């Protein structure tokens, strides 16, 4: 049952349930599932080794498993969940956006971004989003359904396979002396991660469990964003993760935030920040405050000053995001001089601030744009 006052989000009535997949299951559940197919339980670890360590979901590659058992195991535990509609690249092939079609025809997106010192992947946790933020393409499309744990995980597995096989950032890989490894994962694609709480938490466990039970990635390299679902934020703090929490704030005052982030009518700025400070205290991680700068809407000097006063003395870092406008939208990025003034105002309060590197504008880089264009 949800906690008192907690919002619950469900997939629309009649939506098909994604087929069961190895990544949906804990190691113990995998052994039980394999045994239920009449196979020895140790086959579960072999399957996990192929999927989580070798990124091999083609049964023909499972040479340590008897041929007679491969198709049955694949059909029941490694079904096809999603296929690539198309890849679109820019930034000298260092940014690649992928549009996926899920088993039921639903469209979602992920983005791989290669930087000199790291590779970051931005992934989706829902198809669409129910938060209804007016400047966001995904929010305006509405929620189609939650993704399963495996549908979330498979985006990363596919990205790691592309990196290993030199299919992404080839020019940079050659210059750097070899293929890159995925270092950071951000739950900042389509959807509100904490509105798909159980599946997102399950995905984090699959991503960070040691191989072959999971992908063996570091929790410290994972960032989970939220618009401020306070009960879920508090619950997330109790999970014991070392992930970073990113709060999509976008306004320091309730009057404007009620409009930009409608869930603010349920949990106000102070409540959201208090939950963020609790997470920072419990996890030992600095909280990222996401702030999309929108021309003449939230970029005034007095709002920068108010934001600085709210964050001063707390374990927080502001990530200013020049808005990537969506086609036909009245919202657009702030003027460069207003952006610089906003940065100075925060720094005057001793608040660390970074202006995000904007990538992918020429490939419908804003979340939800590519899926909307396909539809």
Automatic annotation (TrEMBL):
Binds 1 [4Fe-4S] cluster. The cluster is coordinated with 3 cysteines and an exchangeable S-adenosyl-L-methionine. Residues 1-26 are annotated as: Disordered. Its main location: cytoplasm. Keywords: 4Fe-4S, Cytoplasm, Disulfide bond, Iron, Iron-sulfur, Metal-binding, Methyltransferase, rRNA processing, S-adenosyl-L-methionine, Transferase, tRNA processing. Its cofactor is [4Fe-4S] cluster. It is found in: Cytoplasm. S-adenosyl-L-methionine binds at residues 191-192, 225, 248-250, 324. It catalyses: adenosine(2503) in 23S rRNA + 2 reduced [2Fe-2S]-[ferredoxin] + 2 S-adenosyl-L-methionine = 2-methyladenosine(2503) in 23S rRNA + 5'-deoxyadenosine + L-methionine + 2 oxidized [2Fe-2S]-[ferredoxin] + S-adenosyl-L-homocysteine; adenosine(37) in tRNA + 2 reduced [2Fe-2S]-[ferredoxin] + 2 S-adenosyl-L-methionine = 2-methyladenosine(37) in tRNA + 5'-deoxyadenosine + L-methionine + 2 oxidized [2Fe-2S]-[ferredoxin] + S-adenosyl-L-homocysteine. [4Fe-4S] cluster binds at residues 129, 133, 136. Residues 115-362 form the Radical SAM core domain. One of its GO terms (molecular function) is methyltransferase activity. The active site is at 109 (proton acceptor), 367 (s-methylcysteine intermediate). One of its GO terms (biological process) is methylation. Its EC number is 2.1.1.192. PROSITE patterns: RADICAL_SAM. Specifically methylates position 2 of adenine 2503 in 23S rRNA and position 2 of adenine 37 in tRNAs. Reaction proceeds by a ping-pong mechanism involving intermediate methylation of a conserved cysteine residue. Belongs to the radical SAM superfamily. RlmN family. This is Probable dual-specificity RNA methyltransferase RlmN. It comes from Streptantibioticus rubrisoli. The lineage of its organism: Bacteria, Bacillati, Actinomycetota, Actinomycetes, Kitasatosporales. The gene is rlmN.
């Amino acid at each position: 049952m949800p906690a008192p006052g907690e919002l619950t989000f469900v997939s629309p009535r009649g939506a098909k349930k994604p087929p069961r997949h190895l990544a949906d299951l804990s190691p113990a559940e995998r052994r039980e599932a394999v045994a239920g197919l009449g196979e020895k339980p140790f086959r579960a670890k072999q399957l996990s080794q192929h999927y989580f360590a070798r990124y091999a979901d083609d049964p023909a590659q499972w040479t340590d498993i008897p041929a007679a058992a491969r198709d049955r195991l694949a059909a029941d535990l490694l079904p096809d969940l999603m296929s690539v509609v198309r890849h679109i690249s820019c930034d000298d092939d260092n940014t690649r956006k992928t549009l996926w079609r899920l088993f039921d025809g639903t469209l979602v997106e992920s983005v791989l971004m290669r930087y000199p010192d790291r590779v970051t992947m931005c992934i989706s946790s829902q198809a669409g989003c129910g938060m209804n933020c007016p400047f966001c393409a995904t929010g305006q499309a509405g929620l189609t359904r939650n993704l399963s744990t495996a549908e979330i995980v498979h985006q990363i597995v596919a990205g790691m396979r592309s990196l290993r096989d030199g299919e992404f950032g080839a020019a940079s890989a050659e210059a750097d002396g070899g293929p890159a490894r995925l270092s950071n994962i951000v739950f900042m694609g389509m959807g509100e991660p904490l509105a798909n709480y159980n599946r997102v938490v399950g995905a984090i466990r699959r991503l960070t469990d040691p191989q072959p039970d999971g992908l063996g990635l570091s929790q410290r390299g994972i960032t989970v964003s939220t618009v401020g679902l306070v009960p879920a934020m508090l619950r997330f703090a109790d999970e014991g993760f070392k992930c970073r929490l990113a709060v999509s704030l976008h306004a320091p005052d309730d009057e404007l935030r009620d409009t930009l982030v409608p869930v603010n009518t349920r949990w106000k700025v102070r409540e959201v920040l208090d939950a963020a400070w609790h997470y920072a205290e419990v996890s030992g991680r600095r909280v990222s405050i996401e702030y999309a700068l929108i021309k003449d809407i939230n970029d005034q000097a007095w709002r920068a000053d108010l934001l600085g006063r709210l964050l001063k003395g707390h374990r927080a870092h502001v990530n200013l995001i020049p808005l990537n406008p969506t086609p036909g939208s009245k919202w657009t990025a702030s003027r460069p001089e207003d952006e610089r003034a906003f940065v100075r105002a925060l720094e005057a309060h001793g608040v660390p601030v970074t202006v995000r590197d904007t990538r992918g504008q020429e490939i419908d880089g804003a979340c939800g744009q590519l899926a909307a264009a396909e539809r």
